């Protein structure tokens, strides 16, 4: 069931609040055992690399479109 409409809020707002709550209640990296810290940091690193790759591809795509637009008669 969708909870957001029952609370009369937008689903994105509820999603944002949930993420903020999860982030605020996540254990601090210093409180975790070394193995878990490494796993968490590796996952974060992987996510950041994926985000960078997406941004790199999007940048190349839009730059190519801009070049095409400039050189068309």
From TrEMBL:
Q: What top-level branch of life does the organism fall under?
A: Bacteria
Q: Name one GO molecular function term.
A: transposase activity
GO annotation terms (biological process): DNA transposition
InterPro entries registered for this protein in UniProt = Homeodomain-like_sf, Transposase_8
The name on file for this protein is Transposase
What species is this protein from?
A: Komagataeibacter intermedius AF2
